[in-house]
Predict the structure.
Amino acid sequence: MLKISDIQVVYNQTPILDQFNLDIEAGEIVGILGPSGCGKSTLLRAIAGFVELAKGEICLNNACLCNCKCFMPPEKRGVGMVFQDNSLFPHLTVAGNIAFGLTKLNKTERQNRVNELLTLIRLEGMGNRYPHELSGGQQQRVALARALAPKPSLILFDEPFSSLDKALSEHLAVEIRQLLKQQKTAAILVTHTQREAELMCDRYAGLEDVYANNWIETAA
Ligand code: ADP
């Protein structure tokens, strides 16, 4: 489904991610661990289309997202993203946030999809609230719903729990795993917390171990 072949990103003549490979199956949830600065976010940015490749190729569902000849813009890639805290649009309601990427649907279809997602994340009746009227955990569930809304085949999670306490992070990791599996959506979780990867992912590895294809399968 996602095929990353021999990629390299270069910042100011310094290579980050050199000859990096990763294959992800449809619906699979993969975790990538590693200390700050090792290149985890750069990997996600390359997949999402926020940074260009110096070498290699990324394909999603057999379509080329980027290589030395082509570059598909981020909005055309069909890849969802969930960041750390404060990623919701503060001036939009919960429903407005979830509907944000649903530009191809008419009004009724959009409302139906938003209601479906509010039920999925157990926030029925809260569509008219604003992000600041929600708890941190609820905000991250809305961020997930916004990413899931256009039915992407892949969602990228960049340290999604870093502003939440340990108990809530672990609870959400399990809940998000269930939602992703229910929606048959593949995901990459980038985190520096091993426990989150154990709870949310099918397999995980430190960024360095990905080069050696040295993965830890989880019992989840
Ligand atoms: P991580 O997500 O693992 O913390 P990053 O992918 O953000 O790591 O960064 C990897 C390395 O690339 C770091 O050394 C960082 O300083 C550098 N870097 C990240 N973004 C840029 C940029 N836009 N320009 C130059 N260097 C960058």
Q: What stands out?
A: Strands lie at 2-11, 14-24, 29-33, 55-60, 63-66, 79-82, 154-158, 186-191, 203-206, 216-217. DSSP finds seven helices and ten strands in the chain.
